[in-house]
Amino acid sequence: MEIIEKYLDLIFLKTNYMKKYLMLFVVVLFFTVANALDKGEWTGFITDDKCGAKGNNKGHAACAKDCVKKGAKIVFVSGDKVYAIKDTKKAENFVGEEVTVTGSITNGVLEITKLVKK
């Protein structure tokens, strides 16, 4: 009888650990999928990271172009949110311009699939 009780205790212990690991896996999977699936279309400005959200207007074009020439990184600003751009070569010719971007955002980084001047 003692052996059966020990065996059942061992099974119960393993089941509890498996439930905890399963819950942890589900939570991690949920946040990974939720973060990775931010795909869509946004309108905003291609600007520089030095000015960031202040570059969210047409009057900032000359400043943005100058800052990029001096080494600032190219970013996309939509509303008050600033996104790094994964492949900035796709946006180089649009610095200072209002654009519509199609793509996906993962961890605050925009991957552009389509970029159209507005």
The H-and-E topology, N to C, reads as HEHEEEE
Round the Cα radius of gyration to an integer and report it: 24 Å
- Percent strand equals 25-35%
Label the structural class: alpha+beta
Tally of distinct domains: 2
End-to-end Cα distance, whole Å, is 78 Å
Q: Roughly what is the average pLDDT, rounded to an integer?
A: 84
Helix content: 25-40%
- Count of DSSP-assigned helices: 2
| Strand arrangement across the biggest beta sheet | 1-2-3-5-4
Number of strands: 5
Globally, the shape reads: rod-shaped
Largest beta-sheet characterization: 5 strands, mixed, barrel
- Given as residue ranges, the uncertain stretches (5+ residues, pLDDT < 50) are none
Q: What this model shows, in words?
A:
- This protein is an alpha+beta fold and 118 residues long.
- The protein folds into 2 domains: 36 residues; 79 residues, no CATH class.
- The chain has 2 helices and 5 strands, in the order H-E-H-E-E-E-E.
- A hairpin with a 2-residue loop joins strand 2 and strand 3.
- It is rod-shaped and about 85 Å long.
